[in-house]
Amino acid sequence: MILIGERINGLFRDVAQAIQTKNPEPIQRLALAQTEAGAAYLDINTGPAVADPAAVMPWLVKTVEEVVDTPLCIDAAKLPAIEAGLKAVTKSRPIINSTIAEREQLEKYLAMAKDYGAYLIALTMNRRGVSRDAADRLAMAMEIVVTADEQGFPIQDLFIDPLVLPVNVCQENIVEVLETLRQVRTLADPPPRTVVGLSNVSQGCPHRSLLNRTFASMAMAAGLDAAIADVLDGELRETVAAGRVLLNKEIYSDAFLGSTSRTSPKQTLR
Ligand code: THG
Which domains does the chain have, with CATH numbers? Predict the structure, then answer.
């Protein structure tokens, strides 16, 4: 499993403030810190408070690319903000984050991903909202895979996100997410990849780090390929490193905790 650093997101007050004052320094510090910590990708989101995300996204991309080579996960609710971000990317293949599973929107995003040579995250939700159980999520994942296949989009470049909700809001949801992760791998050969917003699970809860890393371990065992997560959390990184060894994704060595380093070849997408 690879980690996508969640921290450059206007949900966080320091980032929101840096965006407001066009101050690159806090954002560049977070880009460097997350990269040092082993982030394979950096999620970039202007946050909900920005009036025109399409105007801000290129500045965020440029600010981050000035200090790191880490590829970017362009996170926005609307297509114009994503496209503005994609246009600004000069380094590696980005990830588009994200589209819902409505055919019309999905087709637009698949076309955009093809145009820009990007990976695409598709959420197992539609206009009616998030589905409750694994069967519903899988039906939507299947629609996503079929649509991608019809458009000639490489299924390995597609990430399915079963949408994690906070455990204090929707406790019964977590097992459904885990079951979805297991079954998504049976939808195609090669299968689509999977991704989750890991910290969603603990939003508004105490003991966030404990909940996050316990869920990370479970989701890894269920086959999760990538997590948008708090890579600055050392205990989470250690759990992921141990998980990679136990799942035979990383060769065991007595110093296996070194595998959290960004130099690990398995930490990048191919
Ligand atoms: N799926 C996909 N993309 C996503 C998500 C997802 N992007 C956004 C989000 N979910 C993942 N990123 C975060 C970033 C921050 C938090 C949770 C997930 C978070 N923030 C603090 C909070 O809300 O309590 C902010 C407050 C603070 O600490 O300052 O928890 O699911 N594809």
Answer: 2-260 (3.20.20.20)
